[in-house]
Specification:
Layout: H1 19-35, E1 39-40, E2 46-48, H2 49-56, H3 61-66, E3 69-71, E4 77-80, H4 85-94, E5 103-112, E6 124-133, H5 138-155, E7 161-166, H6 170-186, H7 193-201, H8 215-219, H9 230-246, E8 251-252, E9 266-271, E10 280-286, H10 290-293, E11 301-307, H11 308-314, E12 328-332, H12 335-351, E13 357-359, H13 366-376, E14 380-384, H14 386-391, E15 393-398, E16 406-409, H15 413-420
Parallel strand pairs: 1-5, 7-8, 12-13, 12-14
Antiparallel strand pairs: 2-4, 3-4, 5-6, 6-11, 7-9, 9-10, 10-11, 14-15, 15-16
The structure holds histidyl-adenosine monophosphate.
């Protein structure tokens, strides 16, 4: 037999045993966004390559080696989006959403990076992104961090650590960059090929190296904290005071530099020690200069994105779990009952909003239909045969518990089902 075509490495199907957990998490993320007054955005999965080059930065891992870039039939260079911030800014500028107004926005969807796949790191992954535009002060920085802290409480995830840093203004960073280059140059012989390359192009990224051999040089490097300008130092101090006031614990990490070039001032990451090397569950920061860089009026901006797969793994809900089984499975015997069954099924769906009712299709004996009913995972089977039809009744057989079959008049069926499926949260319309 021919070999089946497989999915692309690092891109995963979400099967029925796992999809309900995804749906639950997505609903909670949507509810949390709305609870803080954020509005949903949906952007295309594909953008002009130039957008990502100009925002994320030419000399970043993402743009240099992780983008899915192709030429379309019109000869334009397009890329699958590796993240959502660039598209969100592009969309806001395009639709005039930043004219004399603030925006609080969120989005959820797939992103694409050609990374080496491993647990927690995929080539198609999903982010919940949150972005706020037009707020210059540290109050919005605190709001975003409090929002993420609330999420961990809502989900019952503990043990996450908040890492906090400030990258200062471009002037401060330039001064720091000089000091850092001097330090790294002095230890040139200890740097690996990647760091030597970054030393020329983007020296701050050397601080992000995971190479154990480099940790000593990195630890001895000058700290950006000592090069901060007045404005960023004040902003950072105010943010810290707000977090202290709200009781959110954090760790200052002067080596936290982030892998995208658009950041300045506040950067933060929530990390776990439960997912191996893929420790960052949610990350973000300020990018006050990006909107201007893309041709808009200068507009302060800040945001973060959460990795959906990583959160599901922390919840232990990334593997086969409870399927979205129907509440009831309707078994029909005979042509007349089948016709009436369809009417009954539609009427019950009207009477009991939220009812998950699966009507048997494809004929077959009672026995075969019961087998399907059982496999569907339904709580109960409704049986509609000739006798029941003649008497205006149905039989209800319990599939998951020892309980006598019930004989229920049609007119009382909705109430009866609502009662036995109380756990399913059903109430008659
Ligand atoms: P990022 O740090 O590149 O930031 O990604 C944010 C989160 O997405 C990561 O912390 C991680 O949880 C998840 N993630 C990233 N790459 C992968 C992958 N290959 N597989 C699974 N999960 C992954 C951004 O993307 C920025 N746009 C965040 C932001 C929004 N900054 C401001 N606004």
């Amino acid at each position: 037999m021919a070999k089946h075509i497989q999915a692309i490495r690092g891109m995963h199907d979400v099967l029925p045993g796992v999809a309900p957990a995804w749906r639950r998490l997505e609903e909670r993320l949507c509810a949390l966004s709305r609870a803080y007054g954020y509005e949903e955005m949906r952007m295309p999965l594909v953008e002009k390559t130039e957008l990502f080059v100009r925002t994320i930065g030419e000399v970043t891992d993402i743009v240099e080696k992780e983008m899915y870039t192709f030429e379309d039939l019109g000869g334009d260079s397009l890329s699958l989006r590796p993240e959502g911030t660039a598209s969100c800014v592009r969309a806001c500028l395009e639709h005039g959403l930043l004219h004399n107004q603030t925006q609080r926005l969120w989005y959820l969807g797939p992103m694409f990076r050609h990374e080496r796949p491993q647990k927690g790191r995929y080539r198609q992954f999903h982010q919940w992104g949150v972005e706020a535009y037009g707020f210059a002060g540290p109050d919005i920085d605190a709001e975003l961090i409090l929002m993420s802290a609330r999420l961990w409480r809502l989900l019952g995830i503990d043990g996450l650590k908040l890492q906090l840093n400030t990258l200062g203004t471009p002037v401060a960073r330039a001064a720091y960059r000089e000091a850092l280059v001097t330090h790294l140059e002095a230890h040139r012989d200890q740097l690996d090929a990647d760091s030597l390359r970054r030393l020329e192009s983007n020296p701050l990224r050397v601080l992000d190296s995971k190479n154990p051999a480099l940790q000593e040089v990195i630890a001895a490097a000058p700290s950006l904290m000592n090069y901060l300008d007045e404005e960023s130092a004040t902003h950072f101090a105010e943010l810290r005071a707000l977090l202290d006031d709200a009781g959110v614990a954090y760790e200052l990490n002067p080596r936290l530099v982030r892998g995208l070039d658009y950041y300045g001032k506040t950067v933060f990451e929530w990390q776990t020690d439960r997912l191996g090397a893929q420790a960052t569950v949610l990350a973000g920061g300020r990018y006050d200069r990006l909107i201007e860089q893309l041709g808009g009026a200068p507009t302060p901006a800040i945001g973060f994105a959460l990795g959906v797969e990583r959160v599901l793994a922390l919840l232990g809900e990334d593997e086969d779990g409870t399927r979205d089984a129907p509440h009831v499975y309707l078994i029909v015997a005979g042509a007349a009952a089948e016709r009436e069954g369809r009417r009954l099924a539609e009427a019950l769906r009207d009477e009991l909003p939220g009812l998950r009712l699966c009507q048997h299709c494809g004929g077959g004996s009672f026995k075969a239909q019961f087998r399907r009913a059982d496999r569907s995972g339904a709580t109960a089977a409704i049986i509609l045969g000739d006798d029941e039809l003649a008497q205006g009744r149905v039989s209800v057989k319990f599939l998951r518990e020892e309980r006598a079959q019930a004989d229920v008049p049609r007119a009382e069926l909705a109430r009866f089902l609502a009662n036995i499926l109380l756990d399913g949260g059903l109430a008659p319309a």
